[in-house]
Automatic annotation (TrEMBL):
One of its GO terms (biological process) is cysteine transport. Pfam families: ABC_membrane, ABC_tran. Residues 348-588 form the ABC transporter domain. GO terms for cellular component: plasma membrane. This is Thiol reductant ABC exporter subunit CydD.
Amino acid sequence: MASNETPRQWLQRTASRGARWSRLSVIAGTLSTLVLMVQAWCIATIAQRMVIDGADFSSLLIPLLLLPPAFIARGLLVRARTLCGARGGIEIRQSVRKELLERIAVLGPLWARRQHSATLSNRVWDQVDALQGFYADYRPQMLLCAIIPIIILAAVAPLSWAAALILLATGPLIPMNMAMVGIGAKKRQEDQFLEMGRMSRHFLDTLQGLSTLKLFDISKRQANEVHTASESFRRRTMRVLRLAFLSSTVLEFFASVSIALLALYLGFVYLGQFNFGMYDHGINLFIGLFILILAPEFYQPLRELGVHYHAKAEAEAAAEDLMPILNRRVFERDNDQPPWQPRAGLTLSLEGLTARYAGRESPALTEVSLTIQANETLAVIGPSGAGKSTLLNVLMDFMHPEAGTLRVSDGDHPSRALTDIRPDDWQHQIAWVGQSAVIVSGTLADNLRLANAHASDQILKEALEQAALHHWLAELPDGLETRLGEGGRAVSGGQARRIALARAFLRDARLVLLDEPTASLDQESERLVMDALSRLCKGRTVVLLTHRMELLALADRVLMLSQGSVQALDTLEALRAPGGPLARSTKSETEVRHV
Ligand code: ADP
Ligand code: MG
């Protein structure tokens, strides 16, 4: 994957993903021109025999019989051409979108969080959609522009060299004019995309901050800003459209003038004024009509290309925006590692781990060394900014330490460095429950099967029971098939958290990572979540970030982090003992006080 690839090269390379369909589209387009020639022959023959030769009806039979099927065939071929082109575009877009999503997954949540979500979704949806016109219409049309005029020329040249010459001379005028108009179009289109991105970011920010804005009574000003942004967007859109219309008007004009020129020539020939440009057989009605019927088809591909010209500018602008993600060098290990499937509880050894965020001067974790025993529950506490979340990011393999190693052992095998395990294999062994549980729009079963696509209904029910959700399940009208999320049944914060826990049970992962699993829950929900947690922690290695005293009771040991370093690591009793770092905390407190 060349890093200095131009958008045009990228578009070219990507075209191969839908090549089958675009080839079919070009074939259909070519065939429809051949069918048109049959039509032209029929019509010209009928006219010649009826008007000039005065032949009887029986000699018209063949062209008359041929004409209706030719009309139908041409209609079908034109339709097939559009459909095949569209199909190719869809296939390419699906493939690009898939690659993009995979890329975003590899770049990881840490990267995604740094992007504005409006920009990211704009890329995945709108920018990828912007490729459709290019692949569905523009590219097949490009090829047809080379094929169809040559076919027409080949048919016209043996009949009249002057007519062929007129076509040949006027043809290039069209692309020349198109290029002149098109130069400005690309720049405009790029501006347009930038503006669209800016507008959606602005709108999303406004939406997210709506309650704050209302409280401070500045929502009016924001509304005005949204209005200004959309007004400027409208003006740009009109400018792009104006250019597009202008270019197709120019094309129509040149095509009409060229056809008029041809008609003029034939007229003068019939009047006997012109006596050149033909061969010995002269130009009869058949030849003239045949040429005139075909002439518009000669210019048609170029005219259509003009209509789709903006699709090219649009696709190039989109490619330019997508390429940085698609071609971004990511931290990739060679994926030839042997598959890894742990057989027993995981022991994690952190050896002098130092991790730093890009652009940060001081590391977020500094030489952290400790061992998390198999099936141990380790609670991690520390003030905000101590490095707790960073530790989880490193454990999830989303963040790569700049020094030190993380070794993993499952008891049976000698320990392996995390860098020697395929990220997929590793992440498969992890269950994660954070402060915000994701509920996707779909049924309860869909939501659970995210963790294990092949789980039977019975297994789903068992997981719900483990997560203390079986009473809730009994209340649901459609059981596992009840729709949740948007347009479905509302899910409370506590229920969402327990659905996330049920997923952790389903996943049956060896390593469970919990980030404040009881944050912002009411007491009843908290109790249910705690129950489920104590079941989940059994027989698994667990790392639990928390502020809550109650949760510390679940832990075998407590790690105190401070400014990225280990401050203490011991059992809760030892930390609480007189003289210990948590000595001043009392049992009745709910929040850990940091000293
Ligand atoms: P905690 O979870 O204990 O509150 P974090 O691990 O989130 O702490 O943060 C540790 C340090 O790393 C802090 O100084 C924080 O400012 C910094 N940090 C956290 N996330 C990022 C990030 N995405 N980019 C840059 N710095 C970060
Ligand atoms: Mg944090």
